[in-house]
Amino acid sequence: MKTKLWWIGQCLLIVAAVFFLVYGISLFRAAYQLNEPFNFIMMIFASNLIILINGTLLVGFVLRMINAYKLLKKRPER
After folding, report:
1. How many folded domains does the chain comprise?
2. Under a CB-based contact definition with an 8 Å cutoff, are residues 31 and 43 in contact?
3. Distance between CA 44 and CA 67 in Å, rounded?
4. Buried-most residue among 1, 48, 61, 77 (CB within 10 A)?
5. pTM of the predicted structure, to 2 decimals
6. Structural domain for 31, as ranges
7. What are the tens digits of pLDDT across the range 11-31?
C-alpha cells in the first residue's frame, strides 16, 4: 500500500511540474505582447525561472521513478 501511494504521489508531482512548465511557457509567449521594455524584461526573466525550475523538477521526478522501478525489478520475489 505504501509503494502505491508513493507512485501516486510521484505522478501527482509530475503533473504539477508539467502544469507549471506549460504556465511558464505561456508567460514567455505573453511577454512578447507587452509594450514597455521593463515589463518585458521582468516577464521574460520570471517565465524563464519558472521554466527552468519546473523542468529540473520534472527531470528529477522522472529519474527517481525510473530508479525506483529498476530497484523493484532487481528485488527478488517473496
Report:
1. 1
2. yes
3. 34
4. 61
5. 0.83
6. 2-74
7. 999 999 999 999 999 999 999
